[in-house]
Amino acid sequence: MRKIMLLFSLIISISTATAQMKIGDSLPDFQLKNNKEATINLTSFKGKTVLIDFWASWCAPCRLANKKLAPLYNQYKNDNFEIVGISLDTDKTKWMNAIQKDKLAYEQLIDAKGFDAKSALLFGVEALPNSYLFDASGKLVAINPTEQEIIMKIKK
Amino acid sequence: MKNINLKFIGIACLFLITSIKSYSQISKAEIIATGLTCSMCSNAINKQLKATVGVDSVSTDLNTNTFTVYFKKESKIMPRVLKEGVEKAGFFIGSLVITVPTENLKIEGDKTISLNGSTFVLLNEELKNSNGETKLKVYDKGYVTQKEHKKLLKTFSKTASYPLDNEDDYHIKTVI
Fold this sequence. Notes:
- With about 160 residues, chain A is α/β, with parallel strands linked by helices.
- Chain A has helices spanning about 1-15, 60-75, 90-100, 120-125, 145-155; strands spanning about 30-35, 40, 50-55, 80-85, 105-110, 130-135, 140-145.
- In chain B, a hairpin with a 3-residue loop joins strand 5 and strand 6 (about 110-115).
- Chains A and B meet through helix 2 of A and loops of B.
């Protein structure tokens, strides 16, 4: 009996470890701390078009993408649009400095464990940058969308 | 019954100790990967190295863009396996430095060292007579950037085995 239980828990742990977001999946019920030490749940953004953006301060292509995301957010923040940055930085100071330097005004969360971070495993993040676009009903509509795709979803 | 158990444990311990001693091995490897995209931004190299038989753990240094691979005690991994792993992940090795217990480095004539069936050819002066561990940088094709390799072909033109690219021969220099 115990063996069966063990086997079951093993199967469950393996299946959750390889879990990965698919188009049509819902915004996960997941909490992280933001740069103001507040705990934020991803489900709280339901009702808005929301872009979840995985990045890190040491990731040069991410920093380049930030230069486009910052003005995109400022332009559409009043159109029921939100960006949530999830950093995989292990060094919080470097993360804070990067937010300031890139002038990121949108929500900033941190999961300080690199690619082993729970959120990275939950979404199936294999390379940075990596972004996930959810529509207002909280359904995943695009992975790594282009700027045009994001704008189209906001205006829909 | 207890006695038998104790004996068994004793024998197992003895076996373990002797088996560790009898294997010569590389203890650590520091890899800098290159490619079209940022190597640290992908989890692929990390995953590939971790899944390699004989690898104990992999750590990353984001300041130096270095993957440090630690091997299991009984591992007989040679640089070739690491190179294949990095290339499987879609990248190339830009620099590889291995750490070897100095006692495993016994120079035979002609500046060569045999280790686990591979031959290491020393490109610089004699090995330092240091105790503990020696760091060695590999200079062969596929272990340095292509550009560097082109230059090195000229630099090491006097070493007959260098341009042969024999995959079980490694050309090395000690790193301080």
